Structures are given as structure tokens and as C-alpha cells.
Amino acid sequence: MFRLTAAFVRAFAHTVATGRRAGWLVGWFVGWFVTWMVALSGVAAAAPTPPESVLVINGVLAANAGGERTSLGPATALVKLPDDWALTRPRYEGAVWYRAAFDRPAGTDAHELLALYIERACSNVEVYLNGQRIASGGRMSEPVTRNCHYPQLITLPAALLQERGNLLDLQVQGHALPRVASRQRAGGLSALKIGPQAVLTAEYDQRLFWNVTSVQIIAVVLAVLGLVTIALGWMNRREAYLSHFGWLAVVWAFMSIRIWWRELPWDTGVMEFLFCTGFAPVAGLAVQFLMSYADLRSRRIETALAAQWVLVPATLLLAGPNHLFSVASAWYVLLMAEVFAAITLYLRTTWRRQRDEFWPMVLLLIALAFTALVELGVQHGLLALPRVQLLQFTAPLMFIGLAVRLLQMFSQALQSAEAGRTTLEARVKEVSAEIERNFAQLAELRVEQVTEKERKRIAGDLHDDLGAKLLTIVHTSESERISTLAREALEEMRLSVRGLSGKPMRLADALADWRAETVLRLGQANIEADWRGPTEETDQLLPARGFVQTTRILREAVSNIIKHSGASHCKVRCAISDRQFGLTVQDNGKGIPMELDGKLDRGHGMSSMKHRAKQMQGQCLVESGPGYGTVIRLTLPI
Fold first, then answer.
1. 320 or 17, higher pLDDT
2. SS (HEC) of 140-156
3. Cα–Cα distance between 503 and 57 in angstroms, integer?
4. CA 571, CA 558: separation in Å to the nearest integer?
5. Do the Cβ atoms of 25 and 363 come closer than 8 Å?
6. For 368-386, what is the mean pLDDT?
7. How many angstroms separate the CA atoms of 306 and 15, rounded?
8. 587 pairs with which residues across the strands?
9. Are 529 and 572 contacting, i.e. CB atoms less than 8 angstroms apart?
10. What is the pLDDT of residues 554-588, one digit of tens each?
11. Which of the listed residues 46, 192, 356, 411 has the most CB atoms within 10 Å of its CB?
């Protein structure tokens, strides 16, 4: 049955750890239910039937410590084991001698090593075989060694053991029920088993594991989880329930110190008082955890819980050590009622807010109610002492389950926060990039606006001042040459003003202006002009700067033809596509001399043409040869 319980506990822990909500719910209930049932089976069922080689002693002679162990005296009485002092000696405090006579168990070899197994001797025991002390559990006077939870396995020396008529004496030092806070720590002695050591060792190991080792392991795990939860609560101050639960787990784990430390430095009265007062902070932290977990807060409840931490030790001191059990039992009932009230309040809240957390807590309430009822039945003598300490075994497991659940929720919240942070970072980057783009556009727009304003001012100044003066020279100059130069300067100034004004121009209108000017100039130089442009009308626009630079390139090309080529014929071809505009000027002149080959860019005219084309992200190519003429190809993006 214990192995089956362990399997269910492991399955429960696995379902909790995997984070499956349905599995967690089922695993929670099944694991706890099986654990309780096994614990209850230890309460109600008798010990398993021992093999024939094991002798079970259920009846002994007993007397209080006044008699000698070799002669127990008139107070000697036949006692049935197990002897529970809470029932047989409810107010006796001190030592009791037990004596049993036995023969070597049947079926054992004469050379086989025998042992005595004592399931429970509370608080401590010394063992004598045929008048010789063979084992001692520790101090037999205050502060008494506390071995209530520890089984005893004592090897029987072969030199002292006889085939028949062996005399076994046990001195048990125990405490009266009214002077302890729990019935499990009242004095008593279980049935005695004598048999082969190898057989009894298995039963001893099993009892030691479930009553001591498992509780220690669970306490360590609970303490670690509690510290982790405290750290998480400290880092996340808004989640107060993490800190409350962490301290609850740590305090409960600390209260298991009596399992680890049997040689305590204070007498029984002090230790029982300290352990009893420890349940006040446990209950207070449990209530605070449930309240904060449900997002509830009450100043009155917090004040009452704080006052309770003072009232519990105060009432225990007023009652005195002889009434410790009755006062402690009353406080246990009250503290349990407080925890159940907090659970009920939490369930009402979660039913309205978080249905997925409701049913696990309902099962937890069932588990707590069942455990509490069994524990109260044991404390008040309605149930026999269990073979497994129910409360100290199941309550930490329940806390571990809650801790795992809280860590799961925190992990999920952390993952959600991390995903949200990643999304927020990406969004911030996008917004930052958008702001930077908008700022760059605004800066460019501002620069353009300032530049445009300055261009218009300069264009206005040129038109109003320089234009007026040049026009005066054209009309008033008596020299034809000066008048011509002034007229050319005026045209050049008007072209510059048009470029500075920044107003785009229809490409069709620009072609018409260029054609008129080119044909006119070539005609005046007696050069036949052949201009061919696109046959289809176009609505494309040419930037003002593009119009000005192209005009100057075309003028420079025509000027070179007139001045240097000696041509009689000039062809001009215009081509327009979706993305670029092309202009080709070809003459039938003498071309560029051989001595200037490779030096075309050294002339001011050629270099200025190419430089202007490059400023407009275009290119200007010159092809020439003696007797071939010259071809200028201009390509500009539009």
C-alpha cells in the first residue's frame, strides 16, 4: 500500500509540474485522496501479519519508575501493548518500566542474528537484556531526547541471548497528555517484535522513511520553494500573495525541526510551548495568502491576525504547562476555522472572477477538511494513533502543490510579459523609425521651403534690378554690339530666374522653346537644321532646374557647331520614355581634330556640359572623328 501511495504521489507531482490544467486538477485530487486513504488505513488497520520467525510481544508487566527493574514491586500490572499513556496514564509524567520474558523465536537458527524492533517509544527508551543494558535512545532526563517519530531497531547480542527464559526490560521516559500540544508526543510504547534482523530491518526502513525521511525531504523541498517564492515576491511587490505563501512554506518547514533535531536544548515544556505558538503565524500567513491571492484586503482581519500572534502565547502562559493540551486544542480548532473561512471567501471570489481556479481549490478544501477532521479525531482520542503522521505528511505536500502552481502562474505571466515587452520593443522601433522618417521629411521640407524662399527672393532681385538695367541698355545703347550682348545677358538672366523660381514646365513646351531657339540660331549661321521630336503629345513635367541645365547644354552644343564645326547640316532628335528623356545633336562638320583626342574634357564648354548632366543624375556623351562630324548624346531622368 505504501508503494502504491508513493506511485500516486509521484504521478500527482508530475501532472502538477507539466502544467496541464485538467491533469493538474485530476492529479491533485487523486494524489491527495490516495494519500489520505493510505494514512487512514494506517489509523484503522492493524500492523501486517509478521512471519513465523518474528515473535510479537503484546503483553508485558509494567510499573512506574518507583520500582527496580529486577523487582517491579506491588504496583506491577499486566499491560497490553501498544500502551498509549493518553488512555492508560493520562496525567503521569516520568518513566515507566516494562518487562517481558521470551524464548528464541521458533524457526530461527542458533547462529542467526536477532533484533528487537520498537515501532514507537515516546519520548525515549533504554533497553536491557538479561540484566545488561544493550541500547539507549539518548538522555532520559530533561531535556529528554525526543524519539517519538523514530522507530528503534536494536541488535540482540548473541552472548547475552539464551534459548529460553530471556528477560527484556525497557525504561520509557514519557510525558503526560496535558503537558504536550499533541497526542502523538504523549508517552507510550508500541508492541515489541523480536526476530531475524534482516526481516525486521525492512519494516524498520519503511517506518523510518514514511515517518522521518519523507517528512525531511518534503520539508527541504518546501523550504526551497518557499525561499524562491519569497524572492519572487520581493522582486514583484504588487504580488503580495507570493511573499505570504513563501513565508508560510518556510515557517512550516522550520517547524519540522523536531524531526531533524532530537537533542533539543530546552525541556519539554518550553519546546511544546514554542511549537504550539508556531501555528499562529502559520494560520495567519495562510489567511493572508488566500486574501491577497483573491485580491481582497481587510484592515480588521490583518489587525486580528496580528493580535492573534500575541494572544496564543499569552493564553498558553496563563493556562500553565499542566493545561497545555486543552488550550492548544482549542486554538487548533479556532485556527482551522479561520483558514476554512478564508478558503470559503476565496472560493466566492474566484467563482465570480476565475472559474478555472475554483475547482482545484474546492478539492483542496475537501482535502483540508478531511485531514483536519482526522487530526482532531486523533487528538481527542476518537481515533487510534496513526502509523503515518497524517498532518505533517500531507500538509507539506499540499503546500508544494500550491507552490508549483504559483510558480507556473508566475512563469506564464513572465512569458506573457516577455512577449509583450518584445512586441512593445518592436512597436517602439517602428514608431521611432517612423518619427525619424517624419523628422527627416520635415527637415527636408523645411530646407526646401527656405531654399525656395531664397530662390524666389534672388529671382525677384535679378528680375527687378538686373533685368531692368539690362533692358534699359538694350533700348538705349547706340552700339549694336553692346545692345546684342545686353540682349543675350537678359535672356541668360531670364533663364536663371526661371530656374530659381522652381516652377516645373511641361516637357512639350520646353521642346517647342528649344526647337525655336535652335532653328533660329542655326539658320542665322546658314546651317540647315533638322529637328525631329516625339510625334505624340506628352503631359510629362520637367523640373525648372532640369529645363535650365538642358537649355544651357543645348546652347553650348549649338554654339560649338556654329563656331568650330564648319558644318552645313545639323540633326536634332528627341526621344521620351516613361523614365528618361534623350536628346541627340549631330552635325556633318569636320569633327574634333586628332590632336585633341582624349582631351575633350579639358575645354570649358565640353566639361561644363558633362558637369551639368551629372548634376541632374544624367550623362552627356561626345562622339567625334575627322570627317565624321560630332554627335552629342544627352540622357536625363524625368
1. 320
2. CCCCCCCCCCCCEEEEE
3. 120
4. 11
5. yes
6. 79
7. 37
8. 570
9. yes
10. 888 998 888 888 889 999 999 888 788 899 999 98
11. 192
- Is residue 117 within 8 Å of 203, Cβ to Cβ? yes
Give CATH for domain 55-204. Answer: 2.60.120.260
Out of 3.40.50.300, 3.30.565.10, 3.30.70.560, 1.10.760.10, which CATH number does the structure's domain 504-637 have? 3.30.565.10
For 143-175, b/e burial (b = at least 16 CB within 10 A) is bbbbbbbbbbbbebeeeebeeeebebbbbbbbb
The pLDDT of 441-468, averaged and rounded, is: 67
Are 244 and 289 spatial neighbours (Cβ–Cβ below 8 Å)? yes
DSSP per-residue string spanning 197-230: HHHHHHHHHHHHIIIIIHHHHHHHHHHHHHHHHH
Diameter of the chain by CA atoms?
165
Report residue 136 as a C-alpha cell.
539507549
Residue with cell 517519538: 148
Whole-angstrom distance, CA of residue 454 vs CA of residue 476: 32
Residue that has been written with the C-alpha cell 508485558 in this structure = 60
For residue 626, is the peptide bond before it cis, meaning its omega torsion is within 30 degrees of 0?
A: no
Cell of 160: 547475552
- Count of CB atoms situated within 10 Å of the CB of 231: 13
CB 115 within 8 A of CB 154: yes
| Per-residue pLDDT at 355 | 65
Residue 341: which residues within 8 A CB-CB, separation 6 or more?
Answer: none
Least trusted range by pLDDT, from 82-86, 376-380, 439-443, 466-470: 466-470
At 70 the pLDDT is: 47
Indicate yes or no: pTM above 0.90. no
Residue (of 525, 534, 625) closest to 567 by Cα position: 525
> pLDDT tens across 104-115, in order?
888 788 788 999
Q: What is the DSSP letter of 396?
A: H
Nearest in space to 151 (alpha carbons), one of 213, 96, 198: 213
Q: List residues bridging with 124 in a β-sheet.
A: 173
Q: Taking 60 as the threshold, does the pLDDT of residue 14 lie above it? A: no
3-state secondary structure 298-350: CHHHHHHHHHHHHHHHHHHHHHCHHHHHHHHHHHHHHHHHHHHHHHHHHHHHH
Whole-Å CA distances, 331 to 308, 411, 518: 10, 37, 115
All three cell numbers of 473: 541698355
Give the model's pLDDT for residue 34. Answer: 45
